[in-house]
Amino acid sequence: MPRDNYAEGFGYQWNQHRLTQLDSHSGRPISRNRLMNQSGWTFAELRGKKVLECGSGAGRFTEVLCESGAEVTSVDISSAVHANAASNGHFPNLRLVQASIYELPFPADSFDFLFCCGVIQHTPDVERTFKTLLRYLRPGGRFCIDVYAAPIAYPHPRQLLRPITKRVPPAKLYAFVEKAVPVLLPLSLKLSAVPLVGPCLARLVPVANHRHLGLTDTETALRWSVLDTFDWLSPRYEKPQTRRRLSRWAGELALREVSIERHRGLYVIRGMR
């Protein structure tokens, strides 16, 4: 893959934050709980099965999938594969590949499970991405994909900043975010603690607030906030999707047992091919 592909910023952020969101580093099952809650899968179901993870970043979910005993193939378009390799390369059941979702080097119908989290809204053509991914799942295989939910993703201050910030070189934008977060995060946390309207008030401040995760250590909270604030501002593409559109795509692919659930600012679509 060319170094300057559309996910260059993601490669930069995950090499800066190789360990930040790994459960083995944080000592808390945050990534494991999110994967299991969104997918509805169990370790018993995954053990020994072929799993395709697309858009793995630094490997927070790769680690969980490998610990399940699945045969994991993890793909990312960016240089984040180097961070993932450094963290998870010791797992004998991991195959790590750098490739575009649109040109995956695997035969169709190859995998029993498909997991794609935090990815498709940042690709050039979300519908094409969604439909391409499902080709690699065998008939009867299970999938879990999430995407920013429309329209709730639109009234957020980052949308006013992104036309500028997405054009800033990653290193310069990251340096700005590192300086801004320690100033903005305390304000966001205070606003989020206001009874009833706290979450709405916190959205007025363009900084990632992980109060819902209960990150009590100040340094850890800052690191997570820097990571996700940069993640908001740097992507070249951000295309939230509606529930109706996701349902239409699932119908066009004749997917079965489909559910679409809201998880905070995301739609999680899961089911069977």
List the helices and strands and how they pair.
Blueprint: H1 8-16, H2 23-26, H3 30-39, H4 43-46, E1 50-54, H5 60-67, E2 71-76, H6 80-88, E3 94-98, E4 111-116, H7 126-135, E5 137-148, H8 158-165, H9 170-192, H10 198-202, H11 218-233, H12 243-252, E6 256-263, E7 266-272
Parallel strand pairs: 1-2, 1-4, 2-3, 4-5
Antiparallel strand pairs: 5-7, 6-7
Average per-residue pLDDT, rounded, comes to 96
Rounded to an integer, what's the Rg over CA atoms?
18 Å
Counting structural domains, the number is 2
Helix content: 40-55%
Notes on the structure:
The chain is an alpha/beta fold and 273 residues long. The chain has 2 domains: 8-150 and 238-272, 3-Layer(aba) Sandwich (Rossmann fold), CATH 3.40.50; 158-233, no CATH class. 42% of the residues lie in helices and 18% in strands. It contains 12 helices and 7 strands. It has helices at residues 8-16, 23-26, 30-39, 43-46, 60-67, 80-88, 126-135, 158-165, 170-192, 198-202, 218-233, 243-252, and strands at 50-54, 71-76, 94-98, 111-116, 137-148, 256-263, 266-272. The two termini are 29 Å apart.
